[in-house]
Amino acid sequence: MMIMSFKPHHDGTIAVLDASSAELIYSYEAEKDSFPRYSTINPTTILEAAGRLDTIPDVIAVGGWETMGFGHDAVGYYGIAQGSDVVGERTIFGRKVHFYSSTHERSHLWGSYGMSPFPAGMPCYVLIWEGWCGDFYEIDERLQVVHRGKVMANPGDKYAFLYALADPRFTLPKGPTRIEDAGKVMALCAYGQTGSPDSDEQALIDFLLPSDVYPLPKEDLRNSPYYNIGVTHQKFTNLAKRVSDAIFDSFHTFAKKNLTKGYPLLISGGCGLNCEWNRRWVETNLFSDVFIPPCTNDTGSAIGTAVDAMRHFTGNAKIKWNVYSGQPFTLDEIDRTGLEVHPLDYDQVASALLSDKVIGWVQGNCEIGPRALGNRSILAAPFSKATHERLNRIKKREGFRPIAPVCLEEDVGVHFDLARPSPYMLLFQKVLDSRLEAVTHVDGTARAQTVSREQNPHLFQLLTSFKAKSGAGVLCNTSLNFNGTGFINRASDLLAYARAAGLDGFVINDAFYLLKEAPLTASRGQKRPLSGGESIPPPML
User: Fold this and answer.
1) pTM higher than 0.70, yes or no?
2) Distance CA 235, CA 239 (A)
3) Which intervals hold domain Carbamoyltransferase C-terminal (predicted)?
């Protein structure tokens, strides 16, 4: 039985499961191949996904979304209980197929369960926290689901709303939050000073956390001391840290009281991209283990709906999957003028990186989820703060944004304080190695990805070669994309990006391309100001 699943609206994705082998065949995200971030499903993605199949699927599955307007979405956004799915038939190209649809909330629950490493029959707790949901669930050995309680409405939107409140450029009255702002708040929290909330901070916490209002009303807070204060203002970064702690503490207090069986915790929803919160869940010791899928946000929703459909038709809700199940790279024609092309030699690339060259790195299929994990990456040496600044200029990002490291799994305890695998870059670690200036954030943390030979043999070999030359199997790793788009996925786009953004070269599978002359671009030697208000003081490393 072949199941083809669609995630509507932002983070549009098409996923295919082979239910007979319980294996993820692919998950194609609409934003990949340089489409705008958070894109809805587009014709290109549909045609590419359909072209991978040699037959019409047996099941078409569609995740629920908002029931707005005419209300054609029969299942909607919320709900886990009976009645939150629809089963029927559809005719596709003259053939009758099964049709399955279930709520968006269910896509998060079954996606995290299906992808988790725990055996079938092991009970689990599930935390679904994202823009709109903030709930705990329990799945028993018979796949029965019990709602353990709602902790907070709209935790993700409340978190992202902080940035909108302080940002003078955010002017929409009662507008929805910007999806990208949550990650910026996470970066800015590191600049907040430790301590208890002052009266202004506590007043905003008391207003924000219990509120069920959506969209959040920025204009109603015009008299707030944080209104348009500027996102880099120290008073705002202190607030961001206090609100972040208050949101986590609300969920932790509930879990400590109500989740007492020691089951593993599965984390799903966009808040699962908050690496500080993930680390804190690990450290609570309330759970036997904690698992966060690499596509914990809505990019994993099509997989989750497919797992839900498989559970309905077969009784099985566990799948085999690989994080590199996205689109294959397109090797279209490129103009090789001004390029030196060499067969891939890991020592040569390592030497280039050690001489402070910044290299695009492409191997095989792209990653599922929003994090570059070594198949669509920009790599650089991790030793210089100037490299951090250069990478943010290349990426056209604010200067306060951190750059993540990638590290040999076997060496993670040498460089970072959390000596456990983190293959999907979803946990904060304290940096122990003072040499790693480019990847050490202002509060001394980093969001490291660990790599083993089995997980990604190409990146493993490069890290091994770099370690032999530098003494550290660590590199800067940030996503290979034009600003505001998903991963680059074709050679012509990569060459255009390299020339425009200021890369020194790039690798595509088994070939190493070096630009013969440094491109004329503002990416080199020109500092980009921080956005939004007063400047943050230099990091204390």
Assistant:
1) yes
2) 6
3) 350-512
